[in-house]
Design goal:
The protein folds into two domains: 69 residues, Phosphorylase Kinase, domain 1 (2-Layer Sandwich); 181 residues, Aminoglycoside phosphotransferase (APH), C-terminal lobe (Aminoglycoside 3'-phosphotransferase, Chain: A, domain 2). Helices cover 46% and strands 17% of the residues. It contains eleven helices and ten strands. A five-stranded antiparallel β-sheet has the order 1-2-3-5-4, with helices on one face. The longest helix is centred in the C-terminal third of the chain and has 24 residues. The protein is globular and about 60 Å long. The N and C termini lie far apart (50 Å). GO terms for molecular function: kinase activity. Keywords: Kinase, Transferase. This is Thiamine kinase-like enzyme. It comes from Paranoxybacillus vitaminiphilus.
């Protein structure tokens, strides 16, 4: 990184799962650097969905480094997720033809329910299903409801709308960051996880009105289906990390969702 910016810049790791993100600072100037970001970042920046892309540079070893504005911002708290700003930004993302066109150019193919079921069947071993009856129940429910979740409108979905991925600046500008897992899919993937995780059910109808759709029975079943499937994928990920506490939290979450 130093060869790109100069030795006078102070560069520190920014954490994250990949270890490829950094903060850089020099004489009051601040940048957020990332190695090998997707070309998708440029479109997200142009759409005002992520902090502004300042430059992109290719290193001698072929790595591509991107620099974005480093903003004075805070992560949203769980209680912030019901705001009109969140609903409006998510709607903007789901309606963006530019984002969809770019993901298609990058070779992304739609994430379909049948594909998710097949992957879960491969990953959920018989031992797991015997050990955790709620997971067996969840998988059976997903299979039973598969035909009920067909939906023609596929959009760009973030697929990890955790409150920590939303940044609110001091001048009240909202951004959604960390797009490494973005997919072309049913918007119910994002909407369902947001509502089930953060919004009391009696407020779903109003939140969806702000977002711009009605709470139909078809939307309900699609949201529930994707929440259950995403939770199973998250459980599998945490199991590989042997994070028992998170595994138990997800099992309790599954029980709550399937009890509805």
């Amino acid at each position: 990184m130093e060869q790109l910016l100069g030795k006078e810049w102070e560069i520190t790791p920014a954490g994250g799962a990949t270890g490829d993100a950094y903060f850089a600072e020099y004489e009051g100037k601040k940048l957020f650097l990332k190695r090998n970001s997707s070309p998708f970042l440029a479109v997200l920046s142009a759409e005002g969905i992520v902090p502004k892309l300042v430059w992109t540079k290719r290193m001698e070893n072929g790595d591509v480094i991107t620099a974005q504005q480093w903003l004075n911002a805070r992560e949203l708290k769980p209680h912030d997720m019901g705001s009109e700003q969140v609903a409006n930004l998510l709607r903007k993302i789901h309606c963006s033809k530019e984002l969809l066109a770019m993901l298609k150019r990058l070779g992304k193919t739609p994430l379909l329910p049948a594909m998710m079921i097949n992957e879960l069947k491969v990953s959920l071993t018989s031992d797991l299903l015997e050990t955790y009856p709620i997971i067996q129940h969840a998988l059976s429910w997903l299979e039973h409801e598969l035909a009920s979740v067909e939906h023609e409108e596929l959009v760009v979905c973030h697929c990890d709308i955790n409150h920590n991925n939303w940044l609110l600046t001091e001048d009240n500008q909202l951004y959604l960051i960390d797009w490494d897992g973005a997919m072309i899919a049913d918007p119910a993937i994002d909407i369902g996880m947001l509502l089930y995780s953060y919004i009391p059910e009696e407020q779903w109808e109003e939140w969806l009105r702000i977002y711009g759709v009605q709470l139909t029975e078809h939307l309900r079943i699609r949201m529930k289906w994707y929440v259950v499937s995403q939770t199973l994928f998250s459980f599998l990920w945490y199991k590989t990390k042997n994070e028992e506490k998170e595994m138990q939290r997800l099992l309790h979450f599954l029980e709550r969702v399937l009890g509805k």
